[in-house]
Amino acid sequence: MSAGHTAELDSLFGDYPLDQAFDEMREPGGELRPHYRALAETLAALPPDELQRRKQSADLAFLTQGITFTVYGRDEGTERIFPYDLLPRLITAAEWDRIERGLTQRITALNLFLRDVYSDAKILNDRFIPRELVYSCKHYRRQMRGLQVPRNVYVAVVGSDLLRLNTGEFVVLEDNLRVPSGVSYMLTNRRVMKRTFPQLFQSYGVRPIEHYPQQLLATLRSLAPEGRPEPNIVLLTPGVFNSAYFEHTYLARQMGIDLVEGRDLVAHDNIVYMRTTDGLRRVDVIYRRVDDDFSDPLIFRSDSSLGCAGLFNAYRAGNVTVTNAFGTGLADDKAIYAFVPRMIRYYLDQDPILPNVETYLLSDEKERAHVLANLDKLVVKAVGESGGYGMLIGPHSTAQQREQFALQIQANPRNYIAQPTLDFSRAPCLIGNHLEPRHVDLRPYILFGDKVNIVPGGLTRVALEKGSLVVNSSQGGGSKDTWVLE
Amino acid sequence: MLSRVADSLYWMSRYLERAENTVRQLDVTMSLMLDPGGDSAETRWKRLVASLGKATGLEWNGDLESMAHTLVFDGLNPASVTFSVNGARENARQVREEISSEQWQRLNRLFHHIHSPQAEAQFSANNNDLLASVVDGIHLFKGVSDTTMIHGQGWQFIRLGRYLERAYSTATLLEVYQPSLFAPAETETFGNQYLELVGLLRCCTSFEAYCQVYTADLSPARILEFLLLNRDFPHAIRYSVEGMRHAVESIQRGGGRRAPDELFVVIGRLQAMLSYTTIGEILSGDAAGFLHSIREQCMRIHELIYRYYVQYSIQSALAA
To answer: What are the residues of chain A with a beta carbon less than 8 Å away from any beta carbon of chain B?
Structure first.
């Protein structure tokens, strides 16, 4: 590296703090990691305002393409673009290989677990997982007991959240087995990125992700009911007011399938139809982006009109495939999560490739006592929540908040778990005119049809607030394009 | 195609056609007011409001600028341009997966443009610039609709909405203008009357087209003939009705199981009414009634579109 470059790099970095957290770009001593060098040098060589200019043109691209999410609670139903950081997050081929194998193993075990629990429940009889933990889960659906699911695939679409600890190792923070979202941002980030840094992208040799919609479609098709060679596949959305509506329309369009709402569907004689201009048309596969609770007012919440009355019975009769299946939220319950390594050993007789985060079950008396004594150091989460809600981050909490959580835990221990506060990795972000590190996670998207497919990459979410550990878009998070290198 | 989607495309298109129509009529009215003489500003404004379907909240209050501002920007007034643009975008948003990215981006840009603070500033500085830019935005949308969207059922519903809205609003406009066309105020000079007639034609972007057919020799009877009965000019009512029939036929070719017999009857009757008559017959008979009947038939067509394609009963569909 020439001396001139170093000066420019210094001004780009400004005051870039390094501490014990893993930095994606720099070694602990401050040296650039080899695979980040070309990126840093390219950025440093740009004229001072060029980065800002590219940032603005990327923002404009998001706005005119309507890549927005809805912010609830305002008069106009304001739409905002999902904050986007210009710098890609890089993952080496070796790192990705491990992630891919680890996730494949995990999703296979989770599917076997769901099948087992909803049929013979061997794992419970063998006392590998406490029975009461399963049956007390609010996402357990007894209607699914003994029901034959096409190809035994309960979860066809998964988004697992990974963190990188200060050892450099990736761990799984949670699995999203219900209606994981964000894949449209992964795809649109990539498109905007290719326009923003075309030469850089080319020089890096990034593995493509653009085929995700096609793979999703192939996955859905592989799950069609028997005897329906040309299945009619649809995406079921709660509608235009859902915060992920953009994603639903995006995926439907990219797959070339109809985007339906509950009011478009009619179940008659255990067959689901959709209302078209040519009359009723039979539906074979439903990619469901509506929660269990709202899917069928006859079986689940009777006050919901987002689903289709009679859907579940048609599903039970095998006349329509709904994916992900109902009741899969059981396996992403944060208390059940603690047992995923055991599932992997039980069903696959393997050691987990991607470890879990250490998790305390508060229904266990000894662990509860430990957690209550150390609330200021731990993160406490409600087991059935997502999106960063229902969470206490010990080191960032007030005594009053801790007291309130302690009461809630004692009132309903099953509803909470605790984990150590993780010092997960940080990646450089463009803040103003220079780079600063921010905490990032990684959500790869896993498809499970005839086989497991993971597009190389995923959504890297960023906690854009300085020092913040919360990456959720509803709580001030943003995203980055993720480049898996050849 | 999903019924809900067809419905949204149909309304997206109607709203845009309505926005364009409102913009053009406002533009013409305001430019006519520049010339002294002829009708007072109040009369003109009232005529504008009447030809926009007697919109409320737009009563004459003497402050032209604020009323025009309301008609363009008041998103809560159903007659306003902004309301129509909002409606078009909201419908498009619900069928994002059906329209092309280009269409969506065009419409989104128009939406953000009319909601930007610059738009209001531009309107105060020179209202014509802003109105022209809105019309441009709509034209661009129609252009990319024709070039980037598959010409299947969805596209036909867009055409159906456009022609229905156009036939209806042109009939309304003519109904409002018709009495004064043939009985100009005695004080009116030839120059003013000429401007009036040009204004009416420009409301339908048809001045130049008219001149090609009849030369610049403007007469009320010929103008009516042109806007009602011309079969080649896209803003003439007869052309619009033929467009509707063509759209419905194409939708039906998509393989519908239930033939919309009654819809064909109603559209065919309206088409025949416009094809097999002369302007002389219309003027010697009840011209106002003739125009009014066009509007009623348009409403009937709208109802039937709903009954056949959008809100049919499940029993009828299962039986078919």
So the answer is: 63-66, 239-240, 245-246, 248-250, 252-253, 258-261, 263-264, 266, 268, 274-280
* Residue B245 shares a structural domain with residue B171: yes
Same domain, B51 and B24: yes
Whether A341 and A352 have beta carbons less than 8 Å apart is answered as yes
CB A246 within 8 A of CB A188: no
Reference A443, options A385, A395, A394, A386; nearest CA is: A386
Q: Which domain holds residue B133?
A: 1-148
- Enter the tokens of residue A486: 């050849």
Count of structural domains, chain B: 2
Domain with residues A94-185+208-348, CATH architecture: 3-Layer(aba) Sandwich (3.40)
Q: Is the ipTM of this complex over 0.90?
A: no
- Tell me if B4 is assigned to some domain: yes
B181 and B68 in a single domain? The answer is no
Report the residue of chain B nearest A259, measured CA to CA: B97
CA atoms within 13 A on the CB side of B198: 13
Could you say which of A249, A264, A277 has the minimum Cβ distance to residue B251? A277
Rounded Cα gap, residues B144 and B104, in angstroms: 10
Does the pLDDT of residue A160 top 60, yes or no?
yes
pLDDT tens for each residue of A375-388: 988 999 888 776 66
Tokens at A163, concatenated: 């963190």
A348: closest CA of chain B, how far (Å): 41
State the average pLDDT for chain A.
89
Residues B137 and B207 in one domain: no
Indicate whether B83 and B229 sit together in one domain: no
Q: Is residue B155 part of a domain?
A: no
In the numeric block, the tokens 């024709």 are attached to B146
**Residue of B3, B90, B98 lying closest to A277 (CB–CB):** B3
Question: Which range has the top average pLDDT, A165-179, B9-23, B88-102, B194-208?
Answer: B9-23
Write the CATH number of the domain with boundaries A360-420.
3.30.1490.270
Asked if B253 has any chain A CB less than 8 Å from its own CB, the reply is: no
- Residue-wise pLDDT tens digits, B155-186: 999 999 999 999 999 999 999 998 888 776 66
Q: Kindly state whether residues B169 and B268 are assigned to the same domain.
A: yes
CA gap B69, B26 in Å, rounded: 11
Residue of chain A whose alpha carbon sits nearest to that of B89: A66
Contact criterion met (CB < 8 Å) for A258 and B2: yes
- Residue whose structure tokens are 């840009």: B109
In a domain, B159, yes or no: no
Measured in degrees and rounded to the nearest 5, phi and psi for residue A466 equal: -60, 130
Q: Which of A232, A241, A277, A286 to mutate to test the interface with B (most CBs of B within 10 A)?
A: A277
Same domain, B194 and B312: yes
Residue A231 near residue A225 (C-beta atoms within 8 A)? yes
pTM above threshold 0.80: yes
